# Entry
Amino acid sequence: MEDTFDLAIIGAGEAGQAAAYLARERGASVAIVDRELFGGSCPFWACMPSKALLHGAAIHALGGDYPWKRASDFRDWMIVRERPRDWPDDSGHVNDLEAAGAVVIRGEARLDGPGKVHVRTDAGERALEAKAILISVGSNSTIPDDIEGLDQIRPWTNREATSTRELPKSLVVLGAGPTGVEMSQVFARYGVPTVLVSPHDRINPKDHPRSTAALDAALRRDGVDIRTNVRAVSVRAGAGHHGAHRRALRRLHGRGP
# Structure
């Protein structure tokens, strides 16, 4: 037997939630499905934790009393992951959706024909039928598969970078878009030797050149070692200090150290 809705939403990030609330305001019946955290990346792995860490790092850089432990704890509070929790609590998002009248389903969803969604949950299989289906699954960080040795280590993505409770000994950031720029500044301001690598001729290349120049100058003042027009070709496991990172960067195409 199928549950029938006006709208079925696969993916409960910002777009999926916004659609659910708008549809409910207009009287539509809504089912919203997500296999992980309701709320998506922004509240837990992206916007909110990165800004929380940037806040702490800014105060620390100005000489304020904001050590890493305090910044990490503040980030955990922002993403509802206060100790002893190791995983964020998304019940606030779930409760708000349910209060709006949406049916919240945690599970793995797939299309099963026109107007049909099949969901695999911990409690078993569930079939949904809907007049309209919205797919809003968002995106994940891409881990390159053409860098020699990368499969021999455990590289970070934005998730590990924004959620770590321990400062790394050193860090090479491959990709100088908004996330790379933000996290480079956070860790550099907390004394982590940090290299920011961009295959383009400038960092944050989709932004205006003057904005890029301001970011470049600020990051360099914070101690970030910026390398442009380079691309990683290999990774050597066990490169645990800045000198080792410098040697590894000699194996980048383009400008080296």
Q: What stands out?
A: The chain is about 35% helix and 20% strand.
